[in-house]
Design goal:
By secondary structure, the protein is an alpha+beta fold. About 25% of the residues lie in helices and about 35% in strands. It has a seven-stranded mixed beta sheet with strand order 1-2-3-4-5-7-6, sandwiched between helices. α1 crosses α2.
Length: about 120
């Protein structure tokens, strides 16, 4: 489920916080506020939560998964990738810990960011 800014639930910060706890670079509250400000997107499928943002890269539009926390399911990836295609993205980037490379077939590690071409 992709939340609209007006439908973001109160528990979002607590649910997505584990994705940010290891890095200390970003804060869950900041990212959830970005979702409320409609500059990022909040997702939930079952017990997994994610935050995405769109940006225009050098050659194509990109969907960046900035955070994911909870009990992983491939369904959230299918939803995000399908939505990204509808938004005109050619690539999905995923920022996360190294262990995510085992869960995300088709994504390859580039530095600490993984990518998947979706077009």
């Amino acid at each position: 489920m992709h939340y609209t800014p007006a439908t973001i639930p109160d528990e979002a910060c607590e649910a997505i916080a584990p994705a940010f706890d290891r890095y200390g670079l970003h804060d869950a509250n900041e990212w959830v506020q970005r979702c409320k400000d409609d500059v990022a997107q909040l997702w939930r499928v079952g017990d997994v939560w994610a935050i995405t943002e769109l940006f225009d890269g050098k050659a194509q539009r990109v969907c960046h998964i900035a955070a994911m926390a909870g009990e992983f399911t491939h369904e959230i990836m299918r939803e995000i990738e399908a939505w990204a295609l509808r938004m005109g993205c050619a690539k999905v980037l995923f920022t996360g810990r190294k262990g995510w490379t085992r869960r995300l077939p088709g994504y390859s590690q580039i530095a600490i960011v993984m990518e998947k071409v979706i077009v």
